Amino acid sequence: MLLKAIDLAHRFPGTDILFEHLDFEISPGQTVALCGPSGCGKSTLLSILAGWVKPWAGQVERDDIHRIGWVFQNPYGVPERTALDHVVFPLLCHGMSRREAIPEALQAMGLFDLEYAADRRFSELSGGEAQRLMLARAVCSHPDVLLVDEPTAQLDTRTAASVSEVLGNLAGQGMIVVVATHDPRARDACDRIIDLADYAPVGAENADGDAGESAAARVDGDAAGSADGSVAGSDAGSAAGSEGESAAGSLAGSEGVRS
Ligand SMILES: Nc1ncnc2c1ncn2[C@@H]1O[C@H](COP(=O)(O)OP(=O)(O)OP(=O)(O)O)[C@@H](O)[C@H]1O
Fold first, then answer.
1. Global ipTM
2. pLDDT one-digit tens code per residue, 224-240
3. Domains along the chain with CATH numbers
4. Ligand 1, atom 7: nearest CA belongs to which residue?
5. DSSP secondary structure string, the chain?
6. 38 Cα: distance to centroid of ligand 1 (angstroms)
7. Whose CA is nearest to atom 25 of ligand 1?
8. Which of 87, 158, 160, 207 qualifies as a cystine partner to 152, CB 3.0-4.6 A?
9. Atom of ligand 1 at shortest distance to CA of 45?
């Protein structure tokens, strides 16, 4: 199993290039922090790795990766449903009975010290509890790759350390864990750091000029490969939606599933 980025570059239509010449390989057992200033493209890169966003240039290879778990930066849920419901629901979608799903869900919630909140409505959870609930929901289906956006932003130091430790343990069990973060606590707990500031185009303020031209030339030479490789996981995206998804959709959806 391998998650590989090959000469990735991205810009949205009409915007500057966010990053370019990005190459890396991530193997099971590794935790990787994506760092860099606000707006540098960390969340976008997670979406590209998941297959939800097609990179402007380059490609992503997902060798032997069947299931991708995703945790959004902002927790989404159905206000009137319980915390436990949010973790059980994707397991039901995978064909488990409720009787089987409940212990699995409680175990995942236990990883993040959330069993006590199982019967609380989503609307009653604190920001940090909701964030940890999203983590529990994403890990309960045992994804091959876990992509997490700012997992510790709303957490105190002790809880943040605990979450980082759990993510490290999950990697130790063979998962690939990629964390987009500003938080030095989460960054330092990872095995590797990819700083997107190192991949900003030279003269970024002029990205529509020289830097844009060089990247555009690369796309021209590699367009077919880019499209083929990057959409390989697009079914993950359709399963999980976007950050702007409806609350009902999000009950099922922090986990993108590919098979
Ligand atoms: N669909 C889109 N269309 C156009 N621009 C977009 C789109 N999505 C994101 N952007 C822009 O791309 C840039 C990178 O966004 P992204 O969310 O990836 O940054 P980030 O590094 O995760 O930021 P933060 O640390 O603040 O969460 C931002 O300037 C954002 O406004």
1. 0.98
2. 233 222 233 333 333 33
3. 2-257 (3.40.50.300)
4. 12
5. -EEEEEEEEE--TTS---EEEEEEEE-TT-EEEEE-STTSSHHHHHHHHHTSS--SEEEEEEET--EEEEE-SS----TTSBHHHHHHHHHHHTT--HHHHHHHHHHHHHHTT-GGGTTSBGGGS-HHHHHHHHHHHHHTT--SEEEEESTTTT--HHHHHHHHHHHHHHHHTT-EEEEE-S-HHHHHTSSEEEEGGGGSPTTGGGTTTHHHHHHHHHHHHHHHHHHHHHGGGHHHHHHH--TT--HHHHHHHTEEE--
6. 8
7. 38
8. 160
9. 18
